[in-house]
Amino acid sequence: MTKPTILVTGGAGFIGSQVCKTLAAAGFLPVAYDNLSNGYAWAVRWGPLERGDLRDGAGLRDVLRRHRPAAVMHFAALIEVGESVRDPARFYDTNVAGSLSLLEAMRAEGVDDLIFSSTAAVYGMPAHTPVVETLPLRPINPYGVTKMVIESMLADYAAAYGLRFGTLRYFNAAGGDPEADIGEAHDPESHLIPLVLDVALGVRPEIAIFGDDYPTPDGTCVRDYIHVCDLARAHLLALRRLLDGGESLTVNLGNGAGHSVREVIETARRVTGHPVPARLAPPRPGDPPVLVADCARAVADLGWRQERAALDVIVADAWRWRQRWRASPPVDAR
Ligand code: UFG
């Protein structure tokens, strides 16, 4: 029997490649569609790579015709919040126009099921934590706005054209493949855990703590770090739900547990056994003091449970990958 194919846009990226590994282990053939602007060919190991841009509608249709996927998983996007403030046009083009191009290609080729990577950034500065999905969406930067617009597009396509979707709102994706086959390699890196691990490795001199006067137990921002493998399993469950004829859904994905910047730094010191010099820096504009997910809906609707929730495990898995990647970068790493 041939394996069902899943088209994975952004399949060469951090989360997309982990999901490809999970899909392959579950008996699917993941076909990565990626322009390699932020992803890496070495991360595509569990199925073919179709090199292409989201905004190339004809190219997408050709790929859909050749591979006949049962569903699409859509990770490809620009993700850096600061860059979205400096250059919003690129974000609207890649994220919004790119997603429209994908939806149109799917509609033309009769592919109806889509899993979409959304973000906690759609909530902006939420009035309550833990954050439930029913809170109003009030993004405070262009990145979050683009993801909110795409969520609306999915709802409208569902009502008008019969699209079925699973929208997954990630909190802070972190960790790494426990076998260290693949992992986070953003360029430039802006996320806390990989930056802290670079300091532990000695390739950065120190970590800047963006503010310590927040209304949190130790004054630094609290975030909900979720292991990429737990994210990947949630994608598989959401996919199976759609393929089994279940209804569309929108769920938060986090640990449901918050950790402060100082806790992350302490954990990195403990896990790596290396010093991690830190210095206080001004707060970053637009950082909510606390962002923690209520994941009850994902648990109830997907039967999802975190398996690698402890911050020590998240940091240890990211550390294993970081050491391996820094020691011998994959051939096409820039
Ligand atoms: N931080 C530092 N120093 C650094 C980097 C980060 O103190 O050098 C702090 C940030 O201020 C924040 C926490 O560490 O409090 C985590 O920062 P990240 O940049 O790793 O992650 P964010 O919480 O800012 O961003 C994440 C996702 C975004 C998403 C956002 C939603 O990476 O894609 O959550 O709010 F938009």
UniProtKB/TrEMBL annotation:
Q: Name one Pfam family in it.
A: Epimerase
The kind of enzyme this is, by top-level EC class, is isomerase
**Sample GO molecular function, one term:** UDP-glucose 4-epimerase activity
| Subunit structure and binding partners | Homodimer.
Q: Which family does it belong to?
A: Belongs to the NAD(P)-dependent epimerase/dehydratase family.
EC assignment: the record states 5.1.3.2
Q: Give the keywords, sorted.
A: Carbohydrate metabolism, Isomerase, NAD
Q: Which reaction does it catalyse?
A: UDP-alpha-D-glucose = UDP-alpha-D-galactose
Q: Which InterPro entries match?
A: Epimerase_deHydtase (IPR001509), NAD(P)-bd_dom_sf (IPR036291), UDP_G4E (IPR005886)
| Metabolic or biological pathway, per its Swiss-Prot or TrEMBL entry | Carbohydrate metabolism; galactose metabolism
Which biological process, per GO, is one annotated for this protein?
galactose catabolic process via UDP-galactose, Leloir pathway
- CDD domains xref list: UDP_G4E_1_SDR_e
Name of protein: UDP-glucose 4-epimerase
Tell me the superkingdom of the source: Bacteria
Instruction: List cofactor names only.
Output: NAD(+)
NAD-dependent epimerase/dehydratase domain segment(s): 6-254
